[in-house]
Design a protein that fits this description.
Blueprint: H1 5-16, H2 23-33, H3 46-59, E1 60-65, E2 70-76, H4 79-91, E3 97-108, E4 113-125, H5 128-137, H6 160-174, E5 180-181, E6 184-188, E7 192-198, H7 202-217, E8 223-233, E9 239-247, H8 251-261, H9 267-301, H10 308-315, H11 322-330, H12 346-353, E10 402-411, H13 412-415, H14 419-429, H15 444-453, H16 455-460, H17 466-470, H18 488-494, E11 507-516, H19 519-525, E12 531-538, H20 541-556, H21 558-561, H22 579-614, E13 624-641, E14 644-657, E15 676-679, E16 687-692, H23 694-699, E17 703-705, H24 714-720, H25 723-732, E18 736-739, H26 742-747, H27 756-765, E19 769-782
Parallel strand pairs: 18-19
Antiparallel strand pairs: 1-2, 2-4, 3-4, 5-6, 7-9, 8-9, 10-12, 10-13, 11-12, 11-19, 13-14, 14-17, 15-16, 16-19
Length: 783
């Protein structure tokens, strides 16, 4: 924990109270509402705070003014950079305003008096809570030149990427821009971090710069000694001294600085830093290539049968000229190779490397060669060409959600006239929402049976047919489930939730097939344009959630036992074959079986609702299961690795199985096509049916994504989406929606999700699954 409520109380009492101390509780309540306590190293707010803090140490000001000691935070800089800070401040839950004014400056330096006019832009956050929060984290209050302050001690314990965010924010305000020497366009000036201090606090300033030096050493970045000079005398007669920390200008050192840290909240310097890193890598390559050429030329020149011309012909390249080789052979020099003559200057490199990219911060680089390597660590795969597709799923694989697709012989023309009645009928038949309970009750004995037999329990009770099991992954029950690994609390939560939809992104949708892609595959699934299908997305409800919660608590104890280090308690883990690992797998499999049974019961209730509305049996309505597949599950499977079959524990978190044709785990009906893959979208766009491929077996362990993924958090969606307007938009598309509460509707608004069409395009074009059909929703049931 970095900050807790007591720390804020202390800071509020020190800075933000009025004469009666009335503001303290108000500030505390304000910050608690925004979820700041306790603030930990893995709190989602910390990365934003670190950047803001770093910049505030440079071009920021915190002050508390007036009788009520109202707190204000100001940031100074370029408008486009201040807008970035404003975005981060807003993410944290605070409002900020941008302001400008023209000012006349008169600065008396040790050399002369400098006068100039300038437009000053600043960002103002008029929140005592925000000011106290930054002060409690260690940001100095008041005039930084006249007051002593230290680097926050907790920052030294932070992971490297946290230190990077802080330093990059500070450097965006206080470090000099990457710039080449006057008269020598190949070498850069030493980057400099500067600060002013009055005489009384010179040593404090040096200590702060020493702390920056210490943080830079963590990145392998070398610095020079801190310099000091008298700068100017202010109107109060106080002498200000300029302190400077110089970064070593060695090529490798600058590459580390600009590529590992760089600048935040300063777009110009960030662009130049990225370009400088690219240029310095090129410079390093040129010099190393010349060094190698000199060595080879010197060695070959001593061979009797090797002529100078042969050496020139063999070694001349883009950056090694004949003139260079001649000088290396015949002109003695203690200096090594350097950049000179026709070599590209930094300015020339900038024009070429950023051509067409502008000042985006990106530069063109040339791939020199590709190398196969053995790598046994995490690989983060960003595959969709979309600015927001950058999430990485974490957490334990437990909730055992899944999705099933049911076809009908009805068409949109058949359903449209009765659509509202159908949606109402489904909503009344299918319990939905947080803690919802259904009419399908199970005794303790039944519940243990469900955890072992999964969908088989429902079929035995008359809630389905044998063919439903054939069309379900693992026939609706995975082996190895252990009811004894499920806690009493989990049993209690699951007791009355069989046949319930739940809340959040779980849904029941009536959909229409609006596009077909492959005639042979379409025929195998019995689909046609305009056909109505039903998609059900739900999981193991409260039982699975409790299994997850219990498992995390149990496995936290395993971290020390098995010497496992994780950054987040949600990643608590244990070896698969350990007692704890085996118990977890047994409990997770039991929850998965509960989820398959739940979806089987939901399908039964859906069939009954259709029967009532259309006055025919579900068999006559053609309501047969196409397939049910889980996501958020870990399974023991055999896969080929480097030509050898191995037994693996495949975690599909935010992912779903996509086995290719011929796989033994598939029902006979899908042996030729490959496994049906169901990828739902949001309630205003499309969902897809695909089939798995052999390529997926080779590249992704037979796995693809299980949905589009969120663009906005649920909180952000609630804040930005208007309920009645959303309903009007959905109604205009011919979509009828019912839910147990307004909150779920806005949380699951189409604007909160990525476009599933883009996601499926990537999956299809990558060859991991082939599109069969696209569906659009016309009736939606939400929790």
């Amino acid at each position: 924990i970095i900050l807790d409520e007591e720390d804020i109380k202390k800071a509020a009492l020190e800075f933000g109270k009025d004469s009666k101390g009335n503001a303290v509780e108000q500030i505390l309540t304000h910050l608690i509402k925004r979820g700041f306590f306790p603030l930990r190293y893995n709190s989602w707010q910390l990365p934003y705070l670190l950047r803001i803090m770093g910049y505030c140490f440079g071009d920021g000001l915190i002050y508390f003014a007036g009788k009520k000691k109202h707190g204000t935070v100001c940031f100074y800089g370029q408008k486009k950079d201040l807008r970035k800070i404003k975005e981060d401040v807003k993410r944290l839950g605070f409002e900020a305003g941008l302001y400008s004014r023209s000012r006349h400056h008169r600065i008396k330096t040790s050399y002369e008096v400098v006068e100039f006019d300038a437009v000053e832009d600043w960002l103002k956050v008029g929140s005592s809570g925000f000011a106290v929060l930054l002060a409690a984290l260690g940001v100095p209050v008041g005039n930084k030149c006249r007051n002593p302050y230290q680097m926050p001690k907790w920052l030294f314990k932070a992971p490297l990427w946290h230190k990077r965010l802080f330093l990059a924010g500070l450097f965006g305000a206080e470090m000099s821009s990457p710039k080449t020497l006057t008269g020598h366009a190949y070498n850069f000036y030493c980057p400099t971090v500067s600060m002013n201090k009055i005489e009384a606090h010179i040593e404090n300033g040096k200590e702060f710069l020493e702390d920056i030096r210490t943080l830079l050493l963590d990145f392998g970045i070398a610095t020079h000694q801190i310099s000091q000079r008298k700068e100017f005398v202010n109107k109060d007669g106080l002498v200000s001294h300029r302190l400077r920390l110089l970064i070593s200008d060695k090529t490798e050192n600058l590459i580390k600085l600009y590529s590992k840290i760089g600048f935040e909240y300063n777009q110009k310097r960030r662009f130049l830093a990225n370009a400088a890193a690219g240029y310095l890598r090129l410079k390093k390559r040129i010099i190393e290539e010349r060094k190698q050429a000199m060595l080879v030329a010197s060695t070959r020149s001593k061979e009797e049968d090797c002529s100078p011309q042969f050496i020139y012909n063999a070694l001349t390249s883009e950056y090694v000229s004949q003139r260079f080789l001649e000088r290396s052979l015949y002109e003695s020099s203690n200096r090594g190779p350097r950049m000179w003559g026709d070599d590209p200057t930094f300015e020339e490199y900038l024009k070429k490397a950023t051509e067409g990219l502008g000042k985006s911060g990106m530069i063109w680089e040339r791939v020199e060669h590709l190398t196969d390597l053995e790598y046994n660590d995490y690989v983060y795969d960003f595959t969709v060409a979309h600015k927001d597709h950058n999430f990485l799923a974490d957490g334990f694989v437990v909730s055992n959600c899944g999705v099933r697709l049911v076809r009908t012989c009805l068409t949109e023309k058949d359903v449209r006239p009765r659509l509202k009645d159908l949606v109402v009928g489904l909503f009344n038949a299918v319990p939905a929402g947080v803690g919802s309970e259904g009419d399908i009750r199970a005794t303790l004995k039944d519940e243990k049976d469900i955890l072992l037999r999964g969908s088989g329990w429902a079929v035995k009770k008359g809630y389905g047919i044998e063919d439903d099991l054939d069309m379900t992954e693992e026939r609706g029950a995975i082996d190895g489930a252990d009811p004894e690994a499920v806690s009493e609390r989990a049993y209690t939560r699951g007791k009355s939730q069989s046949g319930t939809l739940g809340s959040g992104n779980h849904f029941l949708e009536v959909q229409v097939v609006d596009q077909l892609y492959d005639a042979d595959l379409v025929s195998a699934f019995g689909l046609k344009l305009g056909q109505v299908v039903v998609m059900i997305h739900s999981g193991s409800r409260g039982l699975g959630y409790q299994v997850c919660d219990d498992s995390i608590k149990a496995m936290l104890k395993c971290l020390t036992k098995y010497n496992i280090n994780v950054d987040d308690r949600q990643l608590a883990s244990a070896p698969v074959n350990s007692p704890e690992g085996k118990e977890y797998l047994g409990g997770m499999r039991a929850a998965a079986n509960y989820a398959w049974n739940n979806r089987q019961c939901l399908m039964h209730l859906t069939r009954v609702a259709f029967e009532k509305i259309f006055g025919a049996s579900w068999e006559k309505l053609g309501m047969f299961l196409i397939y049910d597949v889980a996501h958020n599950i870990a399974k023991i499977e055999k896969h080929v690795i480097n030509g050898k079959e191995r037994l693996l524990c495949v975690h599909r978190k935010g992912a779903t199985r996509a086995f290719g044709p011929g796989h033994a785990a598939l029902p006979d009906k899908y042996k030729k096509t490959g496994q049906p893959v169901i990828i739902p979208g949001d309630m205003g766009r499309n969902s897809y049916l695909l089939v798995g491929t052999e390529q997926a077996m080779q590249e992704t362990f037979g796995t693809v994504c299980h949905g589009a993924g969120r663009l906005k958090s649920r909180h952000e969606a609630k804040r930005t989406v208007e309920y009645h307007q959303l309903l009007k938009e959905l109604e205009a598309k011919g979509i009828v929606v019912m839910a147990s509460g307004h909150g779920t509707i806005v949380e699951e608004a189409p604007s909160a999700y990525k476009d599933v069409n883009e996601v499926v395009d990537v999956v299809h074009n990558a060859g991991l699954a082939h599109r069969v059909a696209r569906m659009r929703p016309i009736g939606v049931i939400k929790g």
